[in-house]
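DM from R.C. (forwarded with permission)

"hey, sorry to bug you on a friday — could you get me a structure for this? deadline for the figure draft is monday and I only need the backbone to look sensible"
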Amino acid sequence: MRFKIVLALTLAFTLAGLVIANENYSSELENDTQAIDTKLKLSKDAELVEMIPEIVQEQAKPTLKPVTTTVAPTTTKATTPKPIPNVAIEPRMRNGVTPKNMTHNFLQRTGALKASQDFYLGELGFDVDTDNGYDWSNNNNPVAPPNTPSHAAGGYTITAQRLQQIRSNLMYWYFDQDMYGGRGDYQSDIHASMTQLHKNLNFRLPFFGFIYNYTRLSLNGYLEFSDPPEYLTYPLVFPIKDWPKRRDPAFIGIWFSKCRVGRIYPTDIDQRTPGVYFRLERDLITRTDRFGVEVRERTMWDIREGVVGAETFIPKHVVIATWKNVSFAGGIDNALYRTNTFQMVLATDEVYTYAIYNYDLLRWSSNTEAGGDTTTGEGGVPAFVGFNAGNGTRSYEYTPYSQQMVIRDLTGRGWGNGFPGRHLFRIDEQILIGSCNKDIDASHLPLTFAPEAGNMLGGTVVNITGPCFDPKKRVTCHFDTEDVLGTYVSTNRVICVQPFLKAEGWVRFEISIGNQRFKWRGKYFVETPALATEKIFFETEDVHQKSPDQIQISWDPYNLTSNGNANIMISLWGYREVTIYPQLEYIDVIEAGLTNTGSYVIYPNNYINRNNYNNDLQFGFLQINLTNPQQYSGLKISPTLWSRPIPLGWYFNKQWERKHGLRWPQALCENWMRNDRYLRTFTGDLPLCPCTLEQAVYDKGRYRPDKECDKDSNPTCLQHKNAIHCVVSGTPVAEGAEQQCCYDRYGYLMLTQDQVWGSRPRRNHNLGKMPWNEAGKVPTLSNWFHDMRPWYSCCHWQQEQSVNCETFRFERRPSQDCVGYQAPGVAGVFGDPHFITFDGTQYTFNGLGEFVLSRSIAADQRFEVQGRFEQVPKNQYGQVMATQLTAMAMRGNTTTTIEVLLRPKFARWRYALDVLADGRRIYFDRESMRFQHFDGVTVYTPTYLLNQSQVVVMFDSGVGVEVVENEGFMTGRVYLPWTFINKTAGLFGNWSFNAIDDLVLPDGTIASVNLNNFQQIYYNFGLKWMLADRNIPGVGTALFSRENGRTASYYSNASFVPNFTKEPQDFLPSNRSYDVERAEELCGESYQCRYDYGMTLNSDMAHFTKNYYDSLVNIRNLNSKRIVSCGVLETPRFGRKLSFDFMPGAKIAFECDEGFVIMGDQRRECMANGLWNVPEFGYTYCLREVFYTRRVAFIAIAIIVGVILPLMVCIVCGIYRFRQKQLKEDPAWQMTIPRSRASSRSNLRQLSGPDDDSDTDATGTLKKSRSYDKVYRTNEPLPGKPRIDFPAKKWDLDDEDVTSSEGSENKDTKVASDIEYVNKTGDKPRQMGRRSLRDNSGTDHDQHDEDGTAIDEPAQGQEHEEQGQAHDTTNAAYHQPPSPETDDERNMPQHSVNLQRQYSPTFSGADSRNSSVNYQPNAALQNRFGGVPVLPNNTQFFNRPPSNIPAGGTGISLRQANNGAPQTTTAVPLTQDTGLPSPPYAASPTPSVQRSTEV
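My reply, with the result:
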């Protein structure tokens, strides 16, 4: 009995040992320290070199040395292990490396090495420098090559034949042995009791939006990146909806089903050990060793040719995981032979990741847990094939194979690289299939194609995969409204060349096969030519000049073909609009046969003799394509490269010169102006430009950066020199126009009225206007035809001050100033969460779910912005009873719905935010796709960001939404134009500039809450705006798309109770005072920041809460600040302004060009009230000098004609009337004609004779002279008045003077009156007559000495000495004023001079008309001469006595006589001989000192 028990136990242990050995995939030697008997003719090791027939045939090639070892098939059963003979054990080396003689014999016996007598393993006991002896010809060699990566220069170079040889196998390499006695790639640690093994990758592996540096290799047919769920429910559904309550693993599943290691038959060709293999090859880009090079090249070309869009991919790291002969779990022992073999290859450059699924053998589909039977593994739910992103996000199931009965067809489908059973995918961000699928049918099947965007002009080669193609069936590609035929490449690929599309943005892209309908569909992005990916580069700006010498261009030759010897053609195309249909026309061949070197120089002089029929084309494009594409690619189609729009002056200038003359730019400009004046006015619908750059940047709803002049991406600003940034209206206005606003370095608006580089509104928006196929509405082309083209002919090719350029600037495309600009209202949400309404109300509301942030209540202008709030992650103390913003959804009236979602933490390595347009993800990492336009909405990300962390959404109505993410914390801001005042509701309140009505409920009532009471806000206001799965009156319906079936109720929880306490010191325990202090330290005065830190203990969240709060407050302050602007002050034509400021206090001066005269005010000032000062001399303008001269002449003539002539007519008429009146009264009356001084002298000369120049006539009467001063006084004193001395002055005589020979008929009876000059000012007497006094030599007596004393004025000490002295008349100097004859005296004899020195009658002071008192000859001390002295003082005497005094007489000074005793004077009657000078004397009488009282 005991024997039976012992025997049973022995058998049981033996059987258990066999099972364990089988489960542990043990087929290695029993003892690796024992020597292998080289005399054995057949062993298990010998079976490992069995090769499939195809490989044997490859080895027979003469270029490769064939293997001479021949192994016969074994008949030994797998369950009967062969005994290993005992041999002597050689001692191990200290480093544990097998001795080289043992390794040599082992590798030679297994066929992995070829025998070599001088085989050397290196200093370490194995070959570290060479792979001598390794059989590279055996692609299924079970022994790994030398695992010695090398990066040294000059390494291995693979040949085309070798590359073709290694790519001829479906399966990649996997080894169960290595050259050093190890197990190679075989993972012996994976077995039934431990189904997964952790693997460190030590590089970044992007997968489904996330990024990992590790993986877990599972026996169950997948690579996972997180723990699998505790239990599985079949059929499997991913992602797990109950996440995070249940684990939702991220995995790459090639055969997601419970497996176990199977067995192989001894007769199997491939005798490699069943189980799981894993191989990792890193840093392949720089590897130069043979195996590294072959892995890189094979993987690279398999992916490039197998996946569309991977033409430039180079793998950096490769992971090869192989499941060989695995069976299903739960089956019986015989089921171990029912196995599947499949392989997963992952290749990545740490940005893009591709997966290759190779299905070699599939004999079972489901495990017993999934309902499969225990024998065949059929009948249950088949394995899951696909990808899961994990964390409850998204998944991709490979239909129709995954979990379907047709899963067995995976070995005969796919056709990747021509292999049935190979399926390729791109898996880094989205899952894109790279192999065909013929077992699926539906009305809308996903189409994979690349590139997904192309230039509107066409020529983009689109590679398409999805359905399995048949070369006998026609493939039709439908781009928007255009159809083209496809070109068959392989079962897995068809090529279609995009035609010329008059469209922009996302359009439909569909294909049909044969007579089938268009059921394979996708979305294709059409790039406008101005914003398309630039593929032809201009090295300089010469192409924009009127007549450059040369134009240098370059391009990437690999965009055409990888063959550097291919021939290409460069051609020129142009565009025009002369009918309703736009015309893109061919012009000329620039170069017909050029080698594809990537550069070329165009010489415009080579085309001066061209005479094109379509020389009215003024702008166009360069095109480059292959001349014979079939020679290089085997296809008749060629990719096409297009340049950006360029002017064609460099090509047509000579033709235009022959057609229009030397002034052809003027002719082109005037033709354009003539046509443009017939078109409608478009500027009235455009929004006004902001006054400053800051305002323009924060007007998110109406303006976006202009790609042609962007301070962040393109600061060149070719057409706007001196500008640092320009913005354009985000969407076309109703008529399709576009506003442009450019700003200088000081942030002020630049105007065309000031300079040629100013802002220019555009008749056509770059995005065009529906319908795009009509002239004037084509994207970019119509914009260039109507707005860009004339700028070259009118301004760029002419002078800035030319008439055409100023007409273009001032009349046709004038800038609109910012007067009347209204900054938008701003509201925002941030933190966990905090709100600031449009009217500035601040409050905190921690709602959980989806809520209405803002919506319009007006029926004509609809918009809605919604937000999703989820609970904040746990902190070290547990749950956080607060929420944060994680998603926003928005839509206009009939626009596309846009969603912006916060990505999970480990999925933000490349993109921080997900953007969905109508539920489809869109990305902005390509330069041409930074700005994407949809129906009624434009979405863009700033050009300086690559991680999609800031998204701006612009609606046609002017509403803008900005979403910003930092470190996983999100904020949302809404910008509204003033048209929405009193038309909004939601959590952002009613915008009415009145905070009282901010908290409006859906029913229109105003909630009465305390803003400091978070509980009241939560229940009485916030929850009222929660969205549900149904439509709620006044609230609406949620706009969010429902990924993975998650509805609004999944996110909403009305029973959630957040923290209602405001300050951390009030809701944190007393033992956490450090957290309170930390909150104060981080946040300062911001209670929102303190609240967030106290709730989450996350300093990043507190920091960004404060940052978002400050930013929002600053934006609100900026937009609420009124900017006063005086607006446009027009620059005068043919002139310029010396500065361009238009803010209050600015003083603008003007200048005119040469040849022009400035008219009007030369300087204007901007007043504080926003108005320019009123011009004093008229508005400023520049007038040509010739016109100015004419104007002055005309004005003078007009004054003469309009003023002087009428005045003369009036005078003549008056004189005539007066004469008629006098003649009527006295028929004998004759008009006395006033005589001038010259005529008086002439008359006197006539009276005296032609040779008589004396002052008296023959009767001794003074001749008549003119009167120059009518202020006359007498010498007669008045009673009671003081006596005043006045200097004498000579006066002229008038008509009634008694001394005149013509003055009166009763001259004998009249007496002359004395005249006095009254000095009322007290100043020194001065000469009042027209002549200055001169001595005999003609010297003026009002001159001064060197010391400043007047020459004729005696010194003060001499005045009394002169009084009473008698002056000899011979020595007295008479200072006579110059007469017309004075100059003649100098040339006459002395006696003639003395004779001509006679008294001039003009110096007589007698004037009876102005004397109020008659002369009394008996008056005491009265000057009997009656003349007024003209000398400065009264002490000077004339040197000529009166006529009644002898020549030798002595004169007595009158002043002396006055000072002396009274003297009796006899009155002498005034006659011709008394009181007046007589003709015989040559000198004038001596004046006397006169005293009189003012009359």
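R.C.: lifesaver. DSSP finds 24 helices and 58 strands in the chain.
me: no worries. The CA atoms of residues 278 and 321 lie 5 Å apart.
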